[in-house]
Amino acid sequence: MGLGFAIGVFGVLILFHAAYATIQYRGLLKITEEEFSGPPMNVVAELLLGLFFCMWAALAVPGKFLSIHPDSEENRIVSLPANLDFMIFNHRGKVFPGQMDLKLRH
């Protein structure tokens, strides 16, 4: 867990605080019987700052990149056809049933 992850958590906390501040602001408007026209500017600034931190963390903290080359040792071949045009690798799609009878109802 590095600096990028901590910045992402901080961004999420800022977003939660902005949501809480908006709820408080709406409650205050109900008490004073004023109409809600939008959040205050400090909440909008918090939203933009939290969005920036979360986006930066999402781009700075990627997962481990895996090889997509068919001759890589990380890939385990399930079946190798004779013409090598279509190679099938292990993937998450094998958890779905093979024959799915999807029919459109008219």
Automatic annotation (TrEMBL):
What main location does UniProt list? endoplasmic reticulum
Spell out the molecular function terms from Gene Ontology: inorganic cation transmembrane transporter activity
Q: Which UniProt keywords apply?
A: Endoplasmic reticulum, Membrane, Transmembrane, Transmembrane helix
Note the topology in the membrane: Multi-pass membrane protein
Q: Does this UniProt record's set of keywords contain Endoplasmic reticulum?
A: yes
Q: Where is it found, in Gene Ontology cellular component terms?
A: early endosome; EMC complex; Golgi apparatus; plasma membrane
- Annotated membrane-spanning segments are 45-66
Q: Which family does it belong to?
A: Belongs to the membrane magnesium transporter (TC 1.A.67) family.
Q: Name the chain's protein.
A: Membrane magnesium transporter
Which organism was this protein described from?
Acacia crassicarpa (northern wattle)
